[in-house]
Amino acid sequence: MKANSSKIQKNLLNIEPAVIKWARLEAGYTVEDIAKKLNLKESSVISIEETGLISLPQLEKLAHEVYKRPLLFFFMKSPPSSTIKKDFRSVQENEIDSLSPKIRAVIRKVKNFQLSLKELYDNKNPFDPIHKKFKLSINSDPIDSANKLREYLNIEPLDLKKLNKDKVYDFYRNLLEKKGVFVFQYALDEAFRGFALYDKEFPIITISSYDFPSGKTFTLFHELAHILLNTNDLFKDDLNSNEVIEIFCNKFAAEFLVPIYVLLNHQIVVNHSSMEWEESVLESLANEFKVSKETILRRLLDSNKTTKQYYLYCRNKWKIAFKQHRDKLKESDGGPAPWRTWIAERGKGYTQSILNSYYSGTIDETKASEYLNIKINYFDKLQEALK
User: In terms of Cα–Cα distance, which of 223, 227, 98, 128 is closest to 169?
Assistant: First the structure.
């Protein structure tokens, strides 16, 4: 719709009130938040949302800096339906409403990347998508399903002994991207470990960059289970969820990474008689299976080799260590070169797909820059870092 369809009243634009209010709610901001960002009183923000009268500079700031939407979006006659509620139908509405602006922005960004892939490849995944060949049902046995997936991927337990534990996540991430599942990584809210956006051609998994590598690996396979079940997901840091599908996905991920028959026959476990486990012993097992100590202890709990009280004691202790790790990452001013961070965020699969199309002449520099959301002068650095 053309911008000139709006009326100018006393140097103010007349925007449809429902649209401007919807933009705030969809972005997860309060009236107080917007008042601070526009340097206005809360009553003035309420008045804007009730009348639709707003100055052009104010609208431009809201569009470009706050809501990250095209200016013409605000000249719609009525607001669209909530895309987040549509994407996560299985999540309770009150949980969706309480999502922060931060995680909402990440969801929108990843959705845009998904749309870019559809446009680039004419809605046909260039890889052989795993979710078309290997399917799950909520009525399946998660243990049996995990073992079958391991066979499908030709990965045996303890196969990755020579690989550093911190590199296993990258190994699995690259493997899944070659199987048509694009994996992104962004800073998420404390409560969330990741989310999955199912699509018939371009399924997406997003992992919290704040997590430890072993935690990211668990989340990766939890979300893969959702993709194989053809469902979307917002994965919270709650391994005690009573939701049937979350229980299934947790068991599936745990069994894939730590097959229970292998763990129980491990010499350390066979010779262990106590219900409590020294941290050094758990660390040794975690290093062999390339997972977290918590995943090992949870598997032992599932097999009645420890108590729930002891598991919760250790889990709370490790959560404190994780919080310190996350806070350290937040405060860090240094880090890798920006193009390496961009690759970590977008994944090698997505980044290489766009660059290949650009260097082959399939798309021009403007389109490539739009798809990557990165300036063209960094493309050669990106390509070099991907080698």
Answer: 223
